[in-house]
Specification:
The structure is a homodimer. The first copy, chain A, is built from nine helices and no strands. By secondary structure, chain A is an all-alpha fold. The first copy, chain A, binds a DNA duplex through α3.
DNA sequence: CGCTCAATCTGAACAGTGTTAAGATTGGTA
DNA sequence: TACCAATCTTAACACTGTTCAGATTGAGCG
């Protein structure tokens, strides 16, 4: 079959900023990850297809297999970056406050904020069956994100390690469940900015209820 | 095109206990719902396909459309029954105990127990994009399940309606998040009975931490 | 500089999916 | 009994992920 000189499908500027080689892409891994994240952002987790990611990267449907094996491999890489971003957001939220309770509150808000701002990515991060669930780097990234919680919770509880683990599981469960239910529209619409702000206020009340300010007991 | 007498594909006894008519199934709706629930139980939410459900019911891939429109329609019906079962489980759990706190604890355990025993069904119930999310009966069933929580929570909190709503959101978020995280293996393996029992014990501690017995404060 | 070779990517195919349209079959009812 | 609306099938379409043989290429080595 004929060659296409230099351009062709790979020309929309969505895939590369650098010149543009022909047959060999050069940065296909990154291009595929970026394309996947774009799809997740636009269409959500259910909208992702491997072929569409390849299309956006300007390569054939078979190209991704050489870099990621299969769709799960690509999505695993996307999930890892998602966990990294989440962990960073949690650390940033805690570092801005002082006092364990304030840090935990800030982290809870940051967790749900992350989920509402990146629904597709968030859902994919927790869609084990679409990932290589036993991938070492994925498990590490997931644990690192969870660890950002535990450090703050340990500071708050100050009891035994077991108590800290229980409290961390409680905190994680609450914000994770709230985020999931919110994304499934159980707390009202989440597609407009106003609805999201209202949901964040509800979350604030929930956190205040479960972790009341010292002095205010129920 | 020839006919097949009376039997053929529809002969494994999986679809009907009654005689067995030929062209017309007779109870196709129920057969398709039962087949779908079986698939969800065996393969999880990701394993469901409309064609496989039709196959198990002994009909062609196009047959379901006449009863449910499309796959979302069928899954919506499955989800409705799931919510009904969940609501019933929550009511039963509460009715066995006395004292609002004990009722809430029992409901929380029942909620996660339901999720762990029927993972596929549970995941599908909350997979909005695979359902007809604005179906009136679905929303009603979902609300009814949530209501089973709210009544008990209201009894426990005893404050204003707004406070009760906040507390209900907190309780639902916690158990839902715990169930979701458990199903994604974040609290250890969930595929064997032993792992599940350990997870339920962790949940018990979490609930005790967030809703301590009156007298034991933190 | 010229060659080779491993990495990269394509093309074509396969089995599977959900959905639709047109036609066959049938049970209830007028 | 004859019809008709409900029910189901067949066939097709546009997708999907994955595989495999082969084309293309850049980088390193002689």
């Amino acid at each position: 079959m004929k060659k296409q000189g230099s351009s062709g499908k790979r020309s929309a500027g969505l895939t590369r900023s650098k010149p543009e080689p022909g047959y060999h892409h050069g940065e296909l891994q990154e291009a595929l990850i970026a394309a996947s994240e774009a799809i997740l952002a636009e269409q959500g987790a259910e909208g992702f297809t491997l072929r569409e990611a390849a299309r956006r990267a300007g390569v054939s449907p078979a190209a991704p297999s050489h870099h990621f094996g299969n769709a799960q491999g690509l999505l695993t890489e996307v999930a890892i970056r998602g966990y990294d971003a989440l962990a960073e957001a949690l650390r940033a939220a805690a570092s801005g406050k002082q006092g364990a309770r304030e840090k935990l509150r800030a982290q809870g808000l940051a967790y749900v904020d992350f989920a509402l701002r990146h629904p597709g990515r968030f859902q994919m991060m927790f869609a084990n069956k679409r990932l290589v669930a036993d991938d070492a780097r994925l498990k590490q990234a997931s644990r690192a994100a969870g660890h950002a919680f535990e450090t703050v919770v340990a500071e708050l509880v100050g009891g035994t390690a077991k108590e800290a683990k229980t409290a961390a599981a409680a905190a994680w469960s609450t914000v994770h469940g709230f985020a999931k239910l919110a994304l499934e529209e159980k707390f009202g619409s989440v597609r407009n900015e106003g609805g999201r702000r209202e949901i964040m206020m509800t979350l604030d009340q929930v956190l205040n209820y479960l972790w009341p300010a010292s002095g205010a007991r129920r």
